[in-house]
Amino acid sequence: MIGRERLGPLLPPPPAEPRAGALLVAHPGLLDPNFRATVVLLLNASDEGALGLVLNRPLVSDVVDVLPAWHDHVTEPPHLFQGGPVGLDSAIGLARLPGDDGEPPGLKRLVGSIAVVDLDAPPEIVAPAAAGLRVYAGHAGWGPGQLESELAEGAWFVVEGEPGDGFRGDTETLWRDVLLRQTTTVALAATYRSDPEVN
């Protein structure tokens, strides 16, 4: 269970099923520092739990500091990104493929044009097939029933992702931008302030 302060006075998110390729967008009242104002790409979700990558937490370290062979192949900026608070000593590569068919060597298609990268494969073989590539340290993980419980509490919005979400040069406004492109009342969350006096 995520240790969080009480969620603020915003309409609860509409119910939705977590699934691979969907985005979890943090409710504005989710104040846990690990997940405040985050956008998480779900890599998988099942009865056994869920795993995802936080897309909007660049780190100070560059890819060259930990995976120098991949440095020249990642999407700008060449920072590592913190994929979540779990397994920070491991890395996961995420790629955007130019088409929706097939799996080039070293790439495992997740959904649509999004693929997971085998970082042990030679980058000069993998990178030419990718239209975007990013490396994440750590990931976000939920045990059986944990994410469903957080969704029931209203901690997350589940929304459709767009292929470029994980590869933007500027990730600072990703949370707000993803909310604003929604066509439901979820978009209102982008204007929410954690201080109820100003809502």
Automatic annotation (TrEMBL):
Pfam families associated with the record? DUF179
Q: Which InterPro entries match?
A: AlgH-like (IPR003774)
What family does this chain come from, according to its entry?
A: Belongs to the UPF0301 (AlgH) family.
Entry protein name: YqgE/AlgH family protein
Source organism of this protein record: Aquipuribacter nitratireducens
Question: What high-level taxonomic lineage is stated for the organism?
Answer: Bacteria, Bacillati, Actinomycetota, Actinomycetes, Micrococcales
